[in-house]
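Input/output pair, single chain:
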Amino acid sequence: MNRRRRIYEGKAKVLYEGPEPGTLIQHFKDDATAFNNQKIDRIDGKGVLNNRISEFVFLRLNEIGIPNHFIRRLNMREQLIREVEIIPVEVVVRNIAAGSLSKRLGLEEGTALPRSVIEFYYKNDELDDPMVSEEHITAFGWANPQEIDDMMSLAIRVNDFLSGLFLGAGIRLVDFKIECGRLFEGDLMRIVVADEISPDSCRLWDIETNEKMDKDRFRREMGGMLEAYQEVAKRLGIMTQNERPVGSGPTLVQ
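Output:
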């Protein structure tokens, strides 16, 4: 068989041509990056964990009717997904002050916000993903007002679901980011959640100790990143207490 055609490679994932029209294969890498690739390392087994956690979340989003690109997991590192036209805007939902929000507004990290706050960031590594407004998004044609409303509605629904999901596992959802895309089905188009939802894209704190269980452990050189991701997977029931992710994972299907 011919090797699959690579469509796109990002910091943490590779997209390959799918087996059927309108599908892609999403491969999770072990690369850990921060500050738009200024800090890079390889964490053996991270891709396996993110694949499993993201699968778990997207399956449950499907169950409650939140549209997304996920079809099924293929193996320990790969998912079959629907091909979508990615909107170049990251949608960030913040429940607790942390990271850049704390720095920008002078808020003590860990401060509960009066309500959940939605922010938009233009997806552009060369510009360090700058924060943008709805006016920027519509003026530059990245999305129209209805699409922005749909993205915000999806983000709020995902936030409500994830907050409860993680709370039940003894984890506080501090903030998270999602990407959205246009899914074309015949003459119809709808906005769906795409990319991944994992400790790479969420800030997760232990509800009792506030111990960080997400990519901040890598950003801030705290160590224990893989162990924290494993703990998230165990609390969600994805892994048993004694199970370890396969570091190298399966070889790509040729």
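The helical segments are 46-63, 99-105, 134-139, 145-167, 216-219, 225-235. The first strand starts at residue 6 and ends at 9.
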